[in-house]
Amino acid sequence: MAENSTKFELVYFIYGKYDLLLKEALNRLTAKISTADRETLQVSRFSVLENDIDEIMISLETLSFLSGQRLIVVEDILEIKKAAQKRLLDYIGNPNPQTVLVITTSLDGKDGPKKLKQNQIYKACSTSKVAQVHEYKLKGGTSSWTKQRFAARGKTIDDKVLDFLLARVGDNLNRLENEITKISDAAGKDVKEIDKAIVEHVAAVAFEAEVFDLISTVIDRDAEMALTQLSTILMRDSALGRIFSLLERQFRLLLLTKTKGKGMRGQNLAKALGVSPGQTYYLEKQSRLFTLPQLKGALMSLVEIDHARKNSATPPKLLLEKTIVDLCGI
């Protein structure tokens, strides 16, 4: 896409590996069309996975009674069905002059690039005189991008601390952007260089939040979702011991809520358990989902499997997965 151009094509096809880059490119284009157009820009978003092609085509082909452009975004184009594809191809051959169509897709998975090359919409846009095709990708890789994001917030980060951050967070740009914001806010305005202590603290908080979500899913007895969440956590952090520890702590607190904290609520329960008042709300709610024998059995199971993790030849990851399944089956 010609980022500095004030002339707009009627069709854009933008794609790339990272959703965040596509979102930002779309925001820039929307802002430029809004600035160039005297009227209020009408923006509509569709997905070929969620919206019927009739609905999309009506929006594309409708003429506005007011002057000015409309922006129609069509997402997930690699998943388009053949019948819908033909209608969209016909439109690209003769687009509505009052509408800017932005077709967008992320290249998820190993098959993404192959599916893109085979996609007829992509081929048509690549040869059309009224369309522009652009791939958005990282320049210089994730490390360079992360440094630029910190720099935009007036911060610097050295390579060792950066490597530590990326090892903890991974290369998902949406997650990275979120962590960069939290780390910068935690550092404060006066701190210009991000050190490992700040990263470690924020990353630990994020890790505990993810494990808390995992525990909530276990308590809801959703084994499939819990295993998916566990896999996501382990892709970024291999601290199996900490996960066992947090699981055991949560079930111990649930047991204490049902015994030591029986009849207590709010501040009194928080004081008795040594937790924040905010935590007591969830502990009260979750403890009602278990009987006393179930909680005692869950804790005994956690202690036994944690002992096996430290002393048996079975891979710790398998033991943790078994633990998750067993807890969901209580």
SSE blueprint:
Layout: E1 11-16, H1 19-36, E2 42-47, H2 53-61, E3 70-75, H3 82-93, E4 99-106, H4 112-118, H5 120-127, E5 131-135, H6 141-152, E6 156-157, H7 159-169, H8 173-187, E7 193-194, H9 196-219, H10 223-236, H11 240-258, H12 266-273, H13 277-287, H14 292-311, H15 316-328
Parallel strand pairs: 1-4, 1-5, 2-3, 3-4, 6-7
Helix pairs in contact: 2-3, 3-5, 6-8, 7-9, 8-9, 9-10, 9-11, 10-15, 11-13, 11-14, 12-13, 14-15
Question: Can you tell me about this structure?
Answer:
The mean pLDDT is 84. The strands form two sheets. This protein has a five-stranded parallel beta sheet with strand order 2-3-4-1-5, sandwiched between helices. It is elongated and about 70 Å long. Helix 2 links the parallel strand 2 and strand 3. With 330 residues, the protein is of the alpha/beta class. It has three domains: 11-135, 3-Layer(aba) Sandwich (Rossmann fold); 141-194, Helicase, Ruva Protein, domain 3 (Orthogonal Bundle); 208-328, Up-down Bundle (Zinc Finger, Delta Prime, domain 3). Helices cover 61% and strands 11% of the residues. Helix 3 (82-93) packs parallel to helix 5 (120-127), helix 10 (223-236) runs antiparallel to helix 15 and helix 11 runs antiparallel to helix 14 (292-311). The longest helix is centred in the middle third of the chain and has 24 residues, at 196-219.
